[in-house]
């Protein structure tokens, strides 16, 4: 037969374990990604080449996670909000007029959510 004190100790151990799990996983759940979105604001103006954008930003020491076309624009994912602001200033200086460069900070999906929501590649 367990005593009231041993039940209390088990409850305390379980509560501490749950608290430790929350502290461990919370930063990963609330992590954000900093992004820039480049869109053309003029009819007939094509998007800049992703490799060109990468070279120009990298030459200025701006760390880029990825550059991907998305919808009608380019999405540039960066390491930090400071890098995001530097990249925006740089892009405004190097790109000709007619482009919209928008800042966005979105919650980063977890690794498993990204894997599950990938669209299958068309084969053949």
UniProtKB/TrEMBL annotation:
GO terms for cellular component: plasma membrane. It is found in: Cell inner membrane. The keyword RNA-binding does not apply. Residues 7-103 form the SecD export protein N-terminal TM domain. One of its GO terms (molecular function) is protein kinase binding. Keywords: Cell inner membrane, Cell membrane, Membrane, Transmembrane, Transmembrane helix. InterPro entries: Modulator_MzrA, SecD-TM. It comes from the Bacteria. It is a single-pass membrane protein. Interacts with EnvZ. HAMAP family: Modulator_MzrA (MF_00904). Modulates the activity of the EnvZ/OmpR two-component regulatory system, probably by directly modulating EnvZ enzymatic activity and increasing stability of phosphorylated OmpR. Belongs to the MzrA family. This is Modulator protein MzrA. It comes from Serratia rubidaea (Serratia marinorubra).
């Amino acid at each position: 037969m367990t005593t009231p004190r041993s039940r209390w100790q088990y409850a305390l151990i379980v509560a501490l374990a749950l608290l430790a799990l929350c502290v461990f996983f919370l930063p990963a759940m609330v992590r954000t990604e900093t992004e820039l979105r480049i869109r053309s604001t003029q009819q007939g103006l094509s998007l800049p080449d992703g490799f060109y954008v990468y070279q120009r930003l990298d030459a200025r020491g701006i760390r880029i996670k990825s550059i991907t076309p998305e919808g009608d624009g380019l999405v540039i994912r960066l390491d930090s909000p400071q890098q995001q602001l530097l990249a925006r200033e740089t892009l405004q200086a190097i790109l000709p007029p007619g482009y919209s460069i928008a800042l966005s900070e979105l919650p980063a999906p977890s690794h498993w959510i990204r894997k599950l929501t990938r669209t299958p590649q068309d084969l053949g």
